[in-house]
Amino acid sequence: MSQLYKWIFEEGKNEDVHKTILTSQTGSYSLDDIRQEVNKYCSLLTQLGPVQRKRVAFMIPYASSFLSLLLAVNRLGAVAVPISPFLRSEDLSRLLEFINPHVILTIRQHQNFQFFNAVSQWAHGTGEETIIYDSVKGDHWKATVVAGMPKPVESEPVDIIACTSGSTGVPKGVMVDFNFIQFGDAALSAALSLSASDKVLGIVPFSGLFGLCLMVVSIKKRLHFVATESFHFPDIIRLLHTHPVNKLVTSPSLFRSLYLLAKKPVLEPLELIGLAGERITADFIEAVRPIDHCRIISIYGLTEIGGVMFSKNDVRQGMDWELVPGVEAAIVNAPDKREIGELVVKTPNGFLGYYQRPDLTQEAYRDGWFYTGDVARMTESGAIEIVGRKKEMIKKGGQQVIPGEIESLLASHPSIFAAAVVGIPHPIFGEQIVAFVVPKEHVSDTNLYSFCRERLASYKVPDHIFTIDEIPVSQGKADKVKLQQLATKRIAARE
């Protein structure tokens, strides 16, 4: 523990500590600014006693404060638990109950939600001691000690516990150590060809492991990292206008929206666009084909293991995956090597398991191989082709249906902007297929059903197709838990 701080600050040579290395909507910061802020947080966190191996959770929407607090927690040997500032009462309480942090740092309110009140209410209901620091803007902090029984500290070393909602909405904690960041450095450097002369914009939540790793690796390389603290596109476009970048990292859906809304001069300085978090669809390829002044690549990875593959060529020339150096990949449980099976990978990273869930760890991580849950096949040339998610696979009447196949087909319809497919329970067939589409223009359900019937096996044709204004997103991906809930409500309303 505490290697991350040393890696950032204590391995440097003679350098310009006043060079701007981080910019956000809040301001611009140098390495020296970050170092001073880390020192401030170290003093704050230790004023009420040592925090070594204690769980320190923080909900900070400001990039510089987030980075400095992460490094301070690591420097003190505590366990960093970054939490998204976009969570609200029910999800936040569920996550806090699961992690049960010793210390919580939170802004008082954000986007009209009273974070301090929600955190305080949770802490008072535990019967255990919790220290809460709150701030209006992430600068001046007030300490509140909620009295109670002491909580046990972590018995095994872990640097970060990253929280995800999981496929069922139940929180999962992904435990990683410094090796995860080092592997992230290798993966991102290989995929994005990062250098100190780059200026990189990340439109990705930095409270998640991918965004966190992108920020930390960028700072380590002393390039200029631009982090958006808002996912409101006018805010992002203004940030791009005042701070032009040559590289951009985001998800396909977010980039597509940016491309539609931004004026061409704002995007002209881009040399490379790195996309992660979602599959690249044929419809996306067609939508971005006019961008002829820069390369567009895709990065494949998972929260638990980071990025493991990236596209060697521009995605518009076809998806040709290259493994990150040090990564091995195989396809298991396939009838033969050309059939569909589950993708498994072996990496040198620091995945330590799921917090308090050894059963999930054993299921996903066996003999050094991580079972990705992604369905894939090996092409005749030996390349890997990702087909869909195993856990999202729908079992209808004994037949297995891959949502990604239907999503790609619907998204290729000339009147459809985006599509997402989920399965929900059915009393006779086990599961039924529900498709959500975001239309470019009016299109009838009859048209879409006919479109699917002409191109899909009958058991793959959606049982229900619903129109929606936009696909809900969580951590850069379609939020299929919300879509399943919405599907249940809409079907009930029809019956």
From TrEMBL:
Give the molecular function GO annotations. acid-thiol ligase activity
Q: Which residues form the AMP-dependent synthetase/ligase domain?
A: 14-355
Show the taxonomic lineage.
Answer: Bacteria, Bacillati, Bacillota, Bacilli, Bacillales
Name of the protein this chain belongs to: AMP-dependent synthetase
Q: Mind telling me which InterPro entries this protein's record contains? A: AMP-bd_C, AMP-bd_C_sf, AMP-binding_CS, AMP-dep_synth/lig_dom, ANL_N_sf, ATP-dep_AMP-bd_enzyme
Q: From the record, what ranges are coiled-coil?
A: none
The record, for Pfam families, names: AMP-binding, AMP-binding_C
Superkingdom, taxonomy of origin:
Bacteria
The AMP-binding enzyme C-terminal domain is annotated at 405-473
